[in-house]
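Before drawing any conclusions, I looked closely at one protein, both as residues and as discrete backbone shape codes, quoted below without any editing:
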Amino acid sequence: MKRILFIVFIISALSSCKVLDPSIMLATPEGYEFSEIPDNVSLEYRLAANDVVEFKLMSNDGFKLIDITGTDAQRFRQLSLRYDIEFDGTSKLPIIGRTKLAGLTIRECELFLEEKYSVFYNDPYVILSVINRRVIIFPGKSGSAKVLSLKNDNTTLLEALAMVGGLGGDAKASQIKIIRGDKADPEVFLIDLSTIDGMQDGGIVLQANDIIYVEPRVRPIVEIVSEMTPVLSLISVTTSLVTSIYSLYVFSQLGQ
């Protein structure tokens, strides 16, 4: 009984350190205070520094956009102007110059720019989209991390996990971290999708450059066996070799 307890103790001690789980990343210390998930997790995507936006402007509430007989409409469809939101959250736009866009939702930004351009155009109509949004996903399985481009404006955590094939058998659905913002002092959300109660938190809208990390499950016995197998194989081969040499020696002595 004491021997069994000793083995259990050794396995527990090994599993609690980095001996058997060196692949685990972004660990948080005990008692770490995670950021509070907003009550309304389905918040809209907000523009941020390093976003690249595609910006189109029409006058007269976009009349020429739907006037399929007009040549201007055809030119509009072929014209794609891209602008960077720089580190300070501003972008240099035609006519109005450098303008702060970071922090606005896409809809808020369209309305904001329509107001700005109303000084120069009659009833301006703005279409804005972000074309370089991406997140990094570690879905809990070694070697399966992906950089995922977000094509929809309001992609949720559940949708992103579905895009990479969901969680495998080695992933902890109860330990999903979203790391957001300044990497020196980020917001870290802890989300539990192991029960149906976590569905609401799974609807959180991802922002550009979010890191989604699903903690992998540690299997101490499997890891110990995996680590010991090469050693045991070496011992077995060595033992067989020594036994063979000894047998040959004994036979040679008997032959004399």
The radius of gyration is 30 Å. Strands lie at 52-58, 81-84, 90-93, 97-100, 125-130, 134-138, 146-149, 171-180, 187-191, 211-216. The chain has a mean pLDDT of 76. Residues 52-130 form a domain with the wza like fold fold (CATH 3.30.1950.10).
